[in-house]
Amino acid sequence: MPTKNIAQITLISHYLCPYVQRAIIALTEQRIEFKRIDIDLANKPDWFKRLSPLGKVPALLIDEQTVLFESNAIVEYINDISGSSLLATDPLTRAKERAWIEFASATLNNIGQLYNAKTEAQYLNALSMLESKWCTLEKNLSGSTFFNGEHFSLVDAAFAPVFRYFDAFEKFAEFKFLSLCTHAASWRKTLALRPSVKTAVAEDYIPLLTAFVIQRNSYLGSLANNYLHKRR
Ligand SMILES: N[C@@H](CCC(=O)N[C@@H](CS)C(=O)NCC(=O)O)C(=O)O
Asked: What is the pTM of this model?
Protein backbone atom coordinates (compact mmCIF):
# COMPACT_ATOMS: atom_id res chain seq x y z
CA MET A 1 0.00 0.00 0.00
CA PRO A 2 1.39 3.47 -0.80
CA THR A 3 2.49 5.68 2.05
CA LYS A 4 1.21 9.22 2.45
CA ASN A 5 4.07 11.69 2.37
CA ILE A 6 3.18 14.97 4.02
CA ALA A 7 6.30 17.05 3.52
CA GLN A 8 8.66 17.61 6.44
CA ILE A 9 6.69 16.11 9.32
CA THR A 10 9.08 15.69 12.23
CA LEU A 11 8.26 14.16 15.59
CA ILE A 12 10.32 15.41 18.51
CA SER A 13 10.57 12.41 20.77
CA HIS A 14 12.11 10.64 23.70
CA TYR A 15 13.07 6.96 23.46
CA LEU A 16 10.87 5.86 26.39
CA CYS A 17 7.98 8.33 26.34
CA PRO A 18 4.56 6.61 26.19
CA TYR A 19 2.91 9.75 24.75
CA VAL A 20 5.45 9.78 21.93
CA GLN A 21 4.59 6.13 21.28
CA ARG A 22 0.93 7.08 20.78
CA ALA A 23 1.91 9.53 18.07
CA ILE A 24 4.26 7.05 16.38
CA ILE A 25 1.62 4.32 16.43
CA ALA A 26 -0.95 6.69 14.87
CA LEU A 27 1.54 7.89 12.21
CA THR A 28 2.46 4.28 11.38
CA GLU A 29 -1.14 3.06 11.30
CA GLN A 30 -2.03 5.97 9.01
CA ARG A 31 1.05 5.35 6.81
CA ILE A 32 2.36 8.86 7.19
CA GLU A 33 6.10 9.18 6.73
CA PHE A 34 7.89 11.17 9.39
CA LYS A 35 11.31 11.94 10.73
CA ARG A 36 12.00 11.27 14.39
CA ILE A 37 14.36 13.33 16.53
CA ASP A 38 15.01 12.01 20.05
CA ILE A 39 16.06 14.56 22.62
CA ASP A 40 17.50 14.34 26.13
CA LEU A 41 14.74 15.51 28.46
CA ALA A 42 17.23 15.94 31.32
CA ASN A 43 19.11 18.45 29.17
CA LYS A 44 16.58 19.96 26.78
CA PRO A 45 18.11 21.66 23.76
CA ASP A 46 17.43 25.42 23.48
CA TRP A 47 15.72 25.01 20.11
CA PHE A 48 13.28 22.57 21.74
CA LYS A 49 12.57 24.92 24.66
CA ARG A 50 11.79 27.66 22.17
CA LEU A 51 9.39 25.60 20.13
CA SER A 52 7.54 23.46 22.71
CA PRO A 53 5.14 25.60 24.81
CA LEU A 54 5.06 23.11 27.70
CA GLY A 55 8.60 21.82 27.21
CA LYS A 56 7.27 18.30 26.71
CA VAL A 57 7.49 15.63 24.05
CA PRO A 58 5.91 14.72 21.75
CA ALA A 59 5.98 17.81 19.58
CA LEU A 60 5.12 17.58 15.91
CA LEU A 61 6.75 19.96 13.47
CA ILE A 62 4.44 20.35 10.52
CA ASP A 63 6.76 22.84 8.83
CA GLU A 64 9.31 25.40 9.94
CA GLN A 65 6.65 27.69 11.40
CA THR A 66 4.10 25.25 12.74
CA VAL A 67 4.43 23.09 15.81
CA LEU A 68 1.80 20.97 17.50
CA PHE A 69 2.12 19.87 21.12
CA GLU A 70 0.13 17.50 23.40
CA SER A 71 -0.15 13.91 22.20
CA ASN A 72 -3.94 13.95 21.91
CA ALA A 73 -3.93 17.03 19.69
CA ILE A 74 -1.14 15.51 17.61
CA VAL A 75 -2.86 12.15 17.25
CA GLU A 76 -6.19 13.77 16.32
CA TYR A 77 -4.43 15.91 13.71
CA ILE A 78 -2.71 12.82 12.26
CA ASN A 79 -6.08 11.11 12.17
CA ASP A 80 -7.81 14.09 10.55
CA ILE A 81 -5.31 14.43 7.71
CA SER A 82 -5.54 10.72 6.91
CA GLY A 83 -8.00 9.21 4.52
CA SER A 84 -9.47 6.84 7.10
CA SER A 85 -10.29 7.52 10.72
CA LEU A 86 -9.14 5.57 13.76
CA LEU A 87 -12.05 7.03 15.73
CA ALA A 88 -15.67 5.89 15.49
CA THR A 89 -18.04 7.91 13.30
CA ASP A 90 -20.93 7.74 15.77
CA PRO A 91 -20.58 10.80 18.09
CA LEU A 92 -21.33 8.94 21.31
CA THR A 93 -18.90 6.10 20.58
CA ARG A 94 -16.26 8.65 19.54
CA ALA A 95 -16.75 10.63 22.78
CA LYS A 96 -16.37 7.40 24.76
CA GLU A 97 -13.17 6.58 22.88
CA ARG A 98 -11.75 9.99 23.82
CA ALA A 99 -12.74 9.43 27.44
CA TRP A 100 -10.88 6.09 27.52
CA ILE A 101 -7.81 7.74 25.99
CA GLU A 102 -7.93 10.08 29.00
CA PHE A 103 -8.23 7.02 31.23
CA ALA A 104 -5.03 5.66 29.64
CA SER A 105 -3.30 8.96 30.53
CA ALA A 106 -4.49 8.69 34.14
CA THR A 107 -3.13 5.13 34.23
CA LEU A 108 0.22 6.44 32.96
CA ASN A 109 0.24 8.88 35.90
CA ASN A 110 -0.21 5.94 38.29
CA ILE A 111 2.63 4.11 36.54
CA GLY A 112 4.83 7.18 37.09
CA GLN A 113 3.87 7.16 40.78
CA LEU A 114 4.73 3.45 40.92
CA TYR A 115 8.24 3.74 39.50
CA ASN A 116 9.00 6.92 41.47
CA ALA A 117 7.72 5.66 44.87
CA LYS A 118 10.61 5.85 47.32
CA THR A 119 9.29 3.61 50.07
CA GLU A 120 7.52 0.26 50.00
CA ALA A 121 4.40 1.91 51.51
CA GLN A 122 4.31 4.52 48.71
CA TYR A 123 4.88 1.76 46.18
CA LEU A 124 1.99 -0.32 47.54
CA ASN A 125 -0.25 2.72 47.48
CA ALA A 126 0.57 3.38 43.80
CA LEU A 127 0.14 -0.33 43.09
CA SER A 128 -3.34 -0.33 44.57
CA MET A 129 -4.36 2.69 42.46
CA LEU A 130 -3.06 0.90 39.40
CA GLU A 131 -4.88 -2.28 40.31
CA SER A 132 -8.09 -0.32 40.68
CA LYS A 133 -7.59 1.21 37.20
CA TRP A 134 -7.05 -2.26 35.74
CA CYS A 135 -10.24 -3.61 37.37
CA THR A 136 -12.26 -0.66 36.03
CA LEU A 137 -10.79 -1.19 32.58
CA GLU A 138 -11.52 -4.91 32.70
CA LYS A 139 -15.19 -4.26 33.54
CA ASN A 140 -15.45 -2.10 30.45
CA LEU A 141 -13.89 -4.58 28.03
CA SER A 142 -16.04 -7.03 26.12
CA GLY A 143 -13.34 -9.51 25.12
CA SER A 144 -13.16 -8.19 21.56
CA THR A 145 -9.85 -8.16 19.69
CA PHE A 146 -9.36 -4.41 20.10
CA PHE A 147 -10.93 -1.88 22.46
CA ASN A 148 -13.86 -1.28 20.20
CA GLY A 149 -14.47 -4.49 18.36
CA GLU A 150 -12.35 -5.79 15.53
CA HIS A 151 -10.83 -2.48 14.38
CA PHE A 152 -7.71 -0.86 15.76
CA SER A 153 -8.53 2.60 17.15
CA LEU A 154 -6.81 5.50 18.86
CA VAL A 155 -7.79 3.91 22.19
CA ASP A 156 -5.57 0.95 21.25
CA ALA A 157 -2.78 3.39 20.37
CA ALA A 158 -3.13 4.97 23.84
CA PHE A 159 -3.17 1.70 25.80
CA ALA A 160 -0.36 -0.13 23.98
CA PRO A 161 2.35 2.00 25.69
CA VAL A 162 0.59 1.54 29.06
CA PHE A 163 0.74 -2.23 28.67
CA ARG A 164 4.31 -2.16 27.40
CA TYR A 165 5.67 -0.88 30.74
CA PHE A 166 4.80 -4.25 32.25
CA ASP A 167 6.90 -6.17 29.70
CA ALA A 168 9.82 -4.80 31.73
CA PHE A 169 8.24 -4.43 35.19
CA GLU A 170 6.88 -7.98 35.44
CA LYS A 171 10.43 -9.31 35.13
CA PHE A 172 11.26 -7.92 38.57
CA ALA A 173 7.94 -7.38 40.38
CA GLU A 174 4.59 -9.12 40.73
CA PHE A 175 1.40 -7.68 39.25
CA LYS A 176 -1.44 -10.11 39.92
CA PHE A 177 -3.98 -7.96 38.05
CA LEU A 178 -2.17 -8.59 34.76
CA SER A 179 -3.35 -12.20 34.64
CA LEU A 180 -6.52 -11.83 36.75
CA CYS A 181 -8.01 -9.30 34.33
CA THR A 182 -8.35 -11.69 31.44
CA HIS A 183 -9.88 -9.38 28.80
CA ALA A 184 -7.15 -6.82 29.41
CA ALA A 185 -4.54 -9.61 29.30
CA SER A 186 -5.65 -10.84 25.90
CA TRP A 187 -5.95 -7.28 24.55
CA ARG A 188 -2.41 -6.61 25.80
CA LYS A 189 -1.12 -9.69 23.93
CA THR A 190 -2.84 -8.64 20.71
CA LEU A 191 -1.46 -5.12 20.89
CA ALA A 192 2.08 -6.34 21.57
CA LEU A 193 2.01 -8.18 18.23
CA ARG A 194 0.77 -5.20 16.21
CA PRO A 195 3.57 -3.97 13.88
CA SER A 196 2.85 -0.27 14.58
CA VAL A 197 3.12 -0.96 18.32
CA LYS A 198 6.27 -3.07 18.02
CA THR A 199 8.15 -0.50 15.99
CA ALA A 200 7.21 2.48 18.18
CA VAL A 201 10.20 1.73 20.43
CA ALA A 202 13.74 0.46 19.90
CA GLU A 203 14.55 -3.25 20.23
CA ASP A 204 16.41 -2.61 23.49
CA TYR A 205 13.40 -0.87 25.09
CA ILE A 206 13.24 -3.34 28.03
CA PRO A 207 16.87 -2.90 29.18
CA LEU A 208 16.61 0.85 28.57
CA LEU A 209 13.45 1.13 30.65
CA THR A 210 14.97 -1.08 33.36
CA ALA A 211 18.03 1.19 33.53
CA PHE A 212 15.76 4.25 33.67
CA VAL A 213 13.80 2.78 36.59
CA ILE A 214 17.00 1.91 38.47
CA GLN A 215 18.12 5.53 38.08
CA ARG A 216 14.97 6.72 39.88
CA ASN A 217 16.38 5.33 43.15
CA SER A 218 12.90 4.12 43.92
CA TYR A 219 11.44 1.00 45.48
CA LEU A 220 10.75 -0.51 42.05
CA GLY A 221 14.27 0.53 41.02
CA SER A 222 15.67 -1.53 43.90
CA LEU A 223 13.62 -4.55 42.75
CA ALA A 224 14.98 -4.05 39.21
CA ASN A 225 18.51 -3.80 40.57
CA ASN A 226 18.12 -7.04 42.58
CA TYR A 227 16.79 -8.79 39.50
CA LEU A 228 19.77 -7.69 37.39
CA HIS A 229 22.25 -8.74 40.09
CA LYS A 230 20.69 -12.21 40.40
CA ARG A 231 20.99 -12.70 36.63
CA ARG A 232 24.71 -11.90 36.62
N1 LIG B 1 0.04 15.64 28.34
C2 LIG B 1 1.24 15.46 27.58
C3 LIG B 1 2.22 14.65 28.41
C4 LIG B 1 3.58 14.50 27.71
C5 LIG B 1 4.68 14.21 28.72
O6 LIG B 1 4.45 14.13 29.93
N7 LIG B 1 5.89 14.04 28.19
C8 LIG B 1 7.03 13.83 29.08
C9 LIG B 1 7.88 12.65 28.62
S10 LIG B 1 6.96 11.15 28.62
C11 LIG B 1 7.93 15.04 29.01
O12 LIG B 1 8.17 15.60 27.96
N13 LIG B 1 8.47 15.44 30.17
C14 LIG B 1 9.41 16.51 30.24
C15 LIG B 1 9.04 17.54 31.23
O16 LIG B 1 7.92 17.49 31.78
O17 LIG B 1 9.86 18.41 31.49
C18 LIG B 1 0.94 14.77 26.26
O19 LIG B 1 -0.07 14.05 26.20
O20 LIG B 1 1.68 14.98 25.28
From this structure: 0.96
